[in-house]
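As noted in the main text, all predictions were made from sequence alone. Below is one such record, for OPT family oligopeptide transporter.
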Amino acid sequence: MPHVPGPSLEQPPAKAPPPRHPDMIVDPACITPEDRAGQLSVRAVLVGSVIGSMLCASNAFFALQTGWVTMASLQAAVVGFGVFRVAHSSCGCRRLTMLENVVVQTTSVAASTLPLAAGFAGIIPAFELMRKEGHPGAPPELSMASLFLWAAVLSLFGVFLAVPLRRDAILVERLKFPSGTATAEVIAVLHRVAAPSPPSGTPAIGLSDASQLEQPQAGAVPAAAAGEAAAAGSAKVSGRDAPAAEEPGMSVAEQDEASEDAAWTQRWRVLGFTMLAAAAVSVVTEFVPVLHSLPVFQWMGVPLATAVGWTITPSLSYVGQGMIMGPRTTASMLLGSVLAWAVMAPVAQAAGWSSGPVGGAEHGVKGWVTWLALAVMLGDSVVIIGSTFWRLVGSLRAKYGSRMPSAVCCRGLCGAGQAPSSTPQEGASLIPRSHSSDPASPLVRGEAGAGGAAGGVAAAVDPAVAEGTLPSSLELQVLDPAEEAGENVPTMFWVVGLALGTAACAVALSVMFNSPIYEPLVAVMLSCLVAVVAARALGETDLNPVSGVGKLSQLFFAAVAPGNVTSNIVAGAVSEAGAQQAGDLLQDLKTGHMLGASPRAQFFAQIAGSLVGVVVSVVAYKLLTLAYPVGGPELPAPTARVWLGMAELVNGQQLPPYAGLFAGLFGAAALLVSVLKAWAGRPEPGEAAWRRTLRGAMAWAPSVMAVGVGMYIAPNWVLPRCAGSLLQVVWKRTNSAGHDRLMLLAASGFVLGEGLMSIANAGLRAGGAEPWTCDGCVGELACSGCP
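Prediction:
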């Protein structure tokens, strides 16, 4: 029966298959014109929006607790595939195509990360803290309409900014974008277009950056993702999965179908059970507040430990987060917690270096330790951004300052996009790349090479080109299958969109905060610059240093608007939003590029998801802050304190006693470790033995950014993550097959279950619901609802 596409928002005319780029893992000739024409379908956008909405609501809650959000591109792809798989089995609904799945995960990611991009993790709560503490110059409370406008203008201009970055980042330099690469490979396996390699290594997840634990952007994807995908679909190269057992009266195809149905039934049961378990625990801890944060050290007669956060929070959502992050990241966070809250906090308290209450986030020990955490995160961010900027400058000089063709010059600066962090042992690559060309080959073709290599891949490069001896006037064209298929975003569209988005952002922020129009305009211009660096860092390392670029923007803006704390925070918010949105879309564009999807379809999916995320994140934020006080035990908003502290510092506020000294020491140590890791991670021909030894040692060094995050969030949020990472390690070692097949969905169920129930709990609290009992509580240290 001929394939009939569903309702589509985009129906470009059918064309001949575009040529195959060497990074593509799917032959464009295998994609039917119907699938290509129907990839931006209404059903794909709707399912992506629903998945993204659930993640967005959960992320709004977790962002206010620890500044953490999850991108969940893998989960969105797997769940989206499963939804249509079940629909096909139950009612004969047409299965989701591979290109539609790209749209599903693009839409979902755009919606899910809005709490971070729109500043609901730190910026808006920082304004709330300013008003609560009577800070001079605190902005007025933003109405619901103002929050919608704020989120909309911040979320959209970064999407337009990513479009012109696609060519250099993805086509010319072939940056790895490990999360995007792994997502593409998982989607390919789900839809039976490539064979998975056996999972290897333990799950590892990269941490995006400071406010990201804000977003552990699925760094190197867990081996579980490979197991999920491998069990969900068979490889086209093998034709079909081998049936578990011959069933009389059933064809091989029917046995395969039954086997797949049984596998997906098991997955849905695991996802549903873990969601229900996490939701049940969330309800119980809401109405029995002592379970929210068990003050075990208080009961043991050590109140200082309880005051600084050494309590036990039995949260299944944070257990799930730890399962996804893996042991290296959580161990690094635990190291940060020990340094900050078991060593420096007692020292500062005993020496009298803090003037307020022990648990005070402004003048108490918590506030004192925050400066140390900020120094550690800035030290790591400076290295990431600085090294990325250095390579970017080198790339531009190679393009315009030598006789070598641009693509050849750019290729050599970062190994044609093969970043040091994307080595095979990190688990980012899930599928054999035998069908791809050598990563070192330049992606260029001259006029004579248009019909070169089979399948449209770049033609052989003349040795003179490789050696850089050809004249610079020779025009070389980068192979872009999307351009030849007519699927790129039109230049005029993104140029006009970026101009209008810039103007709308500048005008809206000027009116909302009663600031001169040039201040938000400068902030937007600065955001465009730092987004280029941040997006490149994401492509090379899988770390999007959004909080780092935000803090550096605050430092720059102190000269533009000296003494204005509010304008300083707004400038950081704009930079963070631009870097976040541009990075998200480029990550998704990498996924789409590898699978032959339309950049234009992904662009519109990103806009649709962003608009959905605006609505969900604003409603969730208002509901949560109506039920719980910002800065209280339920919503401590640690990143808000970091943003506010940085703004006050660059505008001349004095640090607490000895905070500057120890911040300098911790920052210098972070800088040194980050530099050594960056340097040691780049092998060179003929290098000395001591450098190989250093590189081996640095492989065991902790994640500096994770250490910083562990220093500024309370230990009670770190301990369950550590428990989760240990749980998944034990699971992997005792039942590897079950771990690879079910771990990702089990962890996601824990996260989603508590995240969604937290919104319902907030509604109950806002409606006047009271705790069942406050027995065992220690008041504000554990629960704002108990005396």
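The chain has a mean pLDDT of 76. Strands lie at 444-445, 477-478. These features were considered when defining construct boundaries for the mutagenesis experiments described in Section 2.9.
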